[in-house]
Amino acid sequence: MSFVEYSDVIQDGDVAIVYLGIDSTMPIKVQKGAQTQTRYGVIRHSTDLIGQRYGSKVTCSKGGWVHVLHPTPELWTVSLPHRTQILYTTDIATITMMLELKPGSVVCESGTGSGSLSHAILRTIAPTGHLHTVEFHQQRAEKVAEEFKEHRVDHLVTVRNQDVCKDGFGVTGVADAVFLDIPSPWEAVRHAKTALKRQGGRVCSFSPCIEQVQKTCQALMDQGFEELSSVEVLLRVHDVRVVSMPLPDFGPDPSAPPGPDSRGEAPNHASIALKTTTPPREIPGHTGYLTFATKPRT
Amino acid sequence: MADNGDEDSEYRIKVGDCVVLKRGDIFKAMQIQLGKKVIFEKQWIFLDKTVGQLYSTTFDIVSGGNLLPQKPKNADDASDAKEAGTDNRNIVDDGKSQKLTRDDIETLKEQGLKGQEIIQQLIDNSSTFRDKTEYAQDKYIKKKKKKYENTVTILKPSCRILAMMYHGREPGKICHLRYDTLAQMLTLGNVHAGSKVLVFETCAGLVLGSVMERMGGKFVLLTLQSLAVAHCIIKQPLFPLHSGHGSVVQMYPGGGPVRAGMESFGFPAHFHDTLHEFPICHVNALLAGTLDTTGKHSSAVEKQSDKDKEKEQNQPEAEQAGEQQDGPEDPNMETVTAEEARVEKEKKEKEKRKEAKAQEKRMKLAAAVAQLEGRNADGLIIASRFHPSSVVMGLLKFLAPSRPFVIYSQYKEALIECFTKLKEHGGTVNVRLTDTWLRHYQVLPNRTHPLLLMSGGGGYLLSGTTVATDTAKPSGSQRVEEPAAKRQKLTDTEG
């Protein structure tokens, strides 16, 4: 198991994702002899997990069951323990494409936060790329470095505990792409420029507030970045449902011939079943604005 | 230039490169060929002068359609305190404020004036320009730039650029797949190097190319010992892989796979080593175990795909071929002339080539079968005009358990049906029907606001993960994905 490569069988030391139901997942550190509580009962790692195929159904002690899935960055994003507000897959996917990330890309990122985006970047740039990620909070930096190791991706990433606005990313002229998700990204723009390759590269800044976006765009223009583009992406989920809509009773129709094909004995019992989708009650209406730009050759 | 030569060689335009021409928001994919006139935005140009220049260079189009690299820009024209008004209360739009006529402007163009210079002339000859507010002046200049600047930028192709190009130019060719939707597909599908991805698409090859870009081509299986040697040769950090595979299998309908969009990416040769193709007309046979890829029954296999190919292309040719075969059977021929001997020889060589081609086809098919028969693919991406339920039910069996699938459709209803079928069939979890909404912003001091909203015409996605299929029927499961009004009771399904 690793977050950048599939395997088929669950092994001791793996991180697996337990799928309990829609919007209900839980990461598990597989360990010989260990047990995990779920609302369907206990999962015994040695008998239920180790040696089983990823994707298997696991019956828990209370008789209920769950599925155990191979970890992916997307599953990790919805199950990881939050230390900060995280980026979700919708934004991550847009960032990945707009920064033109691919195997071999060298990326600089700050702040690392809970590592949601970091894992997705690592998956995309493996096996020959590298991620330089900067986190100014010491405990978060340590925690995320630990997770990278557990997830068998630490060879692809360097975590630095420093302030990107003061000290930059710790590398110069190597990055194909830079990502900023910090309170004052305009202060880090010049460091982004330094970290990017001389021949050029892409930059992205994520900010919840429009004032931050304005300041960042100004800084990008001042530093000679081109092709500025600010967007927001929202996800809409459609819940598939069968709904039943009753038919109105307009009373017996005197003009209709009394034929043998009378639909339904009594018209007021009739209804139509409709297969449709409904939106959830509340949808995330805003995460942040994404600003992209290109550094020209310098 | 000498010191940068080697370092920058991969950033230089070469003959034969696949590139993308850009002006503003208009993109067009093209191949660099010498002496060839190409059309871009209603202008005929030659790309010859771009060879040897760096990618992302902007060129001016000069007379004769030749390209000249632009000089580095000076600070924008006199951004010092220009005369400007405060609002438009006294500006009357009578269409008479521009003193230059269309003919005057044409003359200026013919005189070879650059776009920047023409714009300056327009400003100087506008009676209302200095009354406009600073912002209105800015907007005016931007508008004129768009109209009169005769430039083109040569870009290296990427998924981002090609997806935007196809969506802007030929959305019909890609089932109206918007680029942010494509971005979601690649991420939800967990497309990454070393995985085995199945792609079924009728998006001109754009989706295929995008998947291939995220796979990164061929990676060699390395051990720690060979790392040291390899590092010296390739000069890049390398890491040992545990599995050697990384492949894309394109499942295609009809006679042959469509790859135009993929070719526009300009991938190096080793990318093609990881690409396989498999005609869907053999899917059932493959799943049943009755597909034969050796020479013995190949006539059946070939006849099927030949039939499809001929249907699509060679109808008049097929008739001619039929006629030719009747010729030599003429019983009145007694002597073999030199002409006829040549014809015989040509025929024999044609047969040989045909047989070699058929053999190559069989080998390709066998290679694709080898990828598929293990039913252990790591991802399934579907984006087509075909009815998605039928497609996914046919192809889902090739996926290993605990692997993602993503289905794109222009129409929500088609995916609603797909959702239902998948639920009935079982073997999948986390199935979600979604679409994304993308909004662009103009960010300028005191002028920040969203742009024209993009229509919801980006298409829909159905995504999920496979699980191990077993005897328990999903409809008897203890919980339903569609939330019920009451709390579910746990039932004892298995001991």
From TrEMBL, chain A:
Residues 246-298 are annotated as: Disordered. Keywords: Acetylation, Methyltransferase, Nucleus, S-adenosyl-L-methionine, Transferase, tRNA processing. Residues 249-260 have a biased composition (Pro residues). It catalyses: an adenosine in mRNA + S-adenosyl-L-methionine = an N(1)-methyladenosine in mRNA + S-adenosyl-L-homocysteine + H(+); adenosine(58) in tRNA + S-adenosyl-L-methionine = N(1)-methyladenosine(58) in tRNA + S-adenosyl-L-homocysteine + H(+). It is found in: Nucleus. Its EC number is 2.1.1.220. Residues 64-295 form the tRNA (adenine(58)-N(1))-methyltransferase catalytic subunit TRM61 C-terminal domain. GO terms for biological process: tRNA methylation. GO terms for molecular function: tRNA (adenine(58)-N1)-methyltransferase activity. Pfam families: GCD14 (PF08704). PROSITE patterns: SAM_TRM61 (PS51620). One of its GO terms (cellular component) is nucleus. It comes from the Eukaryota. Heterotetramer; composed of two copies of TRMT6 and two copies of TRMT61A. Belongs to the class I-like SAM-binding methyltransferase superfamily. TRM61 family. Catalytic subunit of tRNA (adenine-N(1)-)-methyltransferase, which catalyzes the formation of N(1)-methyladenine at position 58 (m1A58) in initiator methionyl-tRNA. Catalytic subunit of mRNA N(1)-methyltransferase complex, which mediates methylation of adenosine residues at the N(1) position of a small subset of mRNAs: N(1) methylation takes place in tRNA T-loop-like structures of mRNAs and is only present at low stoichiometries. This is tRNA (adenine(58)-N(1))-methyltransferase catalytic subunit TRMT61A. The lineage of its organism: Eukaryota, Metazoa, Chordata, Craniata, Vertebrata.
